[in-house]
Design a protein that fits this description.
Elements lengths: L9 H9 L3 H34 L3 H50 L2 H5 L3 H19 L2 H22 L1 H48 L1 H6 L3 H54 L4 H23 L1 H18 L20 E8 L8 E8 L4 E6 L5 H8 L7 E6 L2 E2 L5 H6 L1 E5 L6 E3 H6 L8 H10 L3 H5 L8 E3 L6 H15 L3 E5 L7 H15 L3 E5 L11 E6 L2 E7 H6 L4 H16 L1
Helix pairs in contact: 1-11, 2-3, 2-6, 2-10, 3-5, 5-7, 5-11, 6-7, 6-10, 7-9, 7-10, 7-11, 9-10, 15-17, 17-18
């Protein structure tokens, strides 16, 4: 799984997202054309006003020219406001669509990819980069389009006054554009580097905050501060390199505009003294020069934002071009009821070259339960992940309901498998949203209340002032045991065919674990279950036991037989687990 060799470029990506907005964009461009043509009348009216005043024309003529100037200026400014309002709305609409697609695509990528990208990096890719694109698209892009219209109009009217002046203005604009384009190409890679450094900094901060308790307990706060200083220093260095190259264009563009205006003024004075041009026409040409340079100057000031936007769009294109290693199947449909689970000569090592599972064969008939035990690192959790197809096997096959999981639709497979792990994710949302995962699981209020009752959370539910609408502040408002019970309620609502419990009771105190036993019995009834556990007491009700050692199955039989067989590893584990209890008696 890696980016494609030819990811879409930034222009094609933006064009694809602008295509549904083509009607709004056409209307926007139409208003923009009018808004940019109207200011062209201003310098012409000012020139005629000066010439009329010098010629001694009647006051009514001067007042008429002044009124025309005022009307065109106010109308142009009003249309500019309309254009800004419409462009900001469209830019944010397009940006939010792109954010949504990036988020959806990132969530569809396999866990191997997510292991290489921290949450902080994803936030920067999905939100930070697109925010830069949105801010740029809502302002500078329209200024570029407006300038193109303005330039054509200025050159046309200047040519009517004096073709040589038109050429001089055109050369000034061309020189400024060359400077901007050249320096844009030079600066973009540096702004790309800056955004990458930002993403690493945010990712590192997110990891440090996640391990705040461990850092404090072990006195590693100074180390975390040092890491932050290192990343901040790297950001400052890359930002400085980008600023030197990006902001340098502003100074050079300013020098080009200043030189162009001086040349135009000199040419106008020379032409006026020869009698080829009136004073009003000289002022018109000078105003045209400033009219073109002012918006272009604002674009030059926003060049840094443009470069950040381009770099962000390129990274968005690369993310969208990244393919998951998990190719969705096209069937067959899984049958109703409990489903069998089978591992055939499965080998898997997370791509490290060192197998966590090595030639594992297991059969779990439909409707039965299997307890998986073994030392830490023996591959217990990996079996559950492969059955749910969070990864694909490197060799061998996983069968659910007799079908290879690689041939099944991922949504169908995962909709039939329920997983409860040691770490429960609770959202800052209502209890209802936490249970249904924001409506993913369809359930009535009665069904939600019944699920909470089945896992022993009815007293807790009655204590909530707002019941199912009570807002939960993540894990902060629940104990570890209550969080695990809430996760069991989710699985009950999903009504899966296969249940995987991965150390699901390892964080529960004995009293809470006892409350969970009844719910577990109901959850597993009529379903196939894989129970991964260190605490052997949680395996009292399973049908069969599998003992893993160094990624291999070293024992697999009925639990009752293994428990009484003094030579079995499972019996030895049971005896080792009882030893502390006997010592305390």
């Amino acid at each position: 799984m890696s980016p494609t060799s030819n990811p879409p470029n930034d222009a094609r990506l933006l064009a694809a997202y602008l295509r549904p907005e083509r009607r709004q964009l056409s209307a926007l461009v139409g208003i923009l054309v009018v808004a940019m043509i109207l200011p062209l009348a201003g310098p012409v009216l000012v020139g005629r006003f000066v010439d009329s005043a010098l010629a001694g024309d009647a006051l009514s003529v001067l007042l008429g020219l002044a009124a025309a100037f005022l009307i065109t200026t106010l109308t142009g400014d009003g249309l500019q406001l309309v254009v800004t309002w419409l462009s900001v709305r469209m830019a944010w609409r397009v940006g939010n669509n792109l954010r949504g697609d990036l988020c959806h695509h990132a969530l569809s990528l396999d866990l191997d990819w997510h292991g290489d990208h921290s949450p902080g990096q994803l936030i920067e890719r999905i939100d930070g980069d697109i925010d830069a694109v949105t801010r740029f698209a809502s302002t500078a892009v329209l200024q570029l389009i407006g300038n193109a219209i303005l330039v054509v109009g200025v050159l046309a009217i200047s040519a009517v006054i004096d073709w040589r002046a038109s050429i001089l203005i055109g050369l000034t604009i061309a020189a400024a554009l060359v400077v901007m384009v050249k320096l844009r190409r030079v600066a973009v890679p540096y702004y790309d580097d800056e955004r990458e450094v930002q993403a690493k900094l945010y990712g590192d901060v997110e990891e440090r905050l996640g391990g705040l308790e461990d850092l404090r307990a072990n006195g590693a706060g100074r180390w975390a501060e040092h890491r932050l200083q290192q990343h901040s220093a790297g950001w400052w260095r890359t930002a400085r390199r980008a600023a030197v190259r990006g902001d340098g264009s502003i100074s050079i563009a300013g020098a080009v505009f200043a030189a162009g205006s001086a040349l135009i003024l000199a040419f106008g004075v020379w032409s006026s003294r020869r009698g080829d041009m009136s004073v009003g026409q000289v002022l018109t040409l000078l105003r045209f020069s400033q009219l073109v340079s002012d918006p272009l100057w604002r674009v030059a000031e926003q060049l840094a934002e443009a470069q950040k936007a381009i770099a962000g769009t390129r990274r968005a294109a690369r993310l969208l071009a990244t393919h998951t290693a998990l190719v969705d199947g096209d069937g067959p449909d899984l049958g109703a009821g409990a489903l069998s689970v089978e591992l055939k000569d499965v080998t898997f090592g997370y791509g490290t070259g060192h197998p966590v599972l090595d030639g594992v064969d297991l059969v779990v008939p439909a409707g039965t339960s299997l307890g998986i035990v073994g030392r830490t690192g023996s591959g217990k959790t990996t079996i559950g992940r492969l059955v749910a197809r969070l990864w694909d096997t490197e060799a061998g096959a996983i069968l659910v309901g007799g079908a290879d999981v690689r041939s099944l639709r991922l949504a169908d497979l995962r909709g039939r498998i329920g997983i409860v792990t040691q770490e429960v994710e609770l959202f800052r949302a209502s209890l209802r949203d936490n249970l249904t995962v924001f409506g993913t699981l369809a359930a009535t209020d009665a069904e939600l209340e019944q699920a909470l009752t089945d896992v022993g959370l009815e007293p807790w539910l009655r204590s909530l002032p707002n019941g199912l609408d009570q807002h939960l502040d993540g894990q902060a408002e629940l104990s570890a045991g209550e969080g695990q019970l809430l996760a069991f309620a989710r699985v009950l609502l999903a009504d899966p065919a296969v249940v995987i419990l991965d150390e699901a009771s390892s964080r529960l105190d004995p009293l809470t674990e006892a409350r969970l036993a009844t719910a577990t019995d109901r959850l597993l009834a009529g379903r196939t279950s894989l129970i991964i556990a260190h605490r052997l007491a949680t395996l009292d009700r399973v049908d069969r036991i599998c003992v893993l050692e160094h990624g291999r199955v070293v024992e697999h039989d009925e639990r009752a037989l293994l428990a009484i067989d003094t030579s079995s590893r499972f019996h030895q584990l049971l005896e080792a687990g009882r030893a502390p209890e006997e010592v305390t008696k």
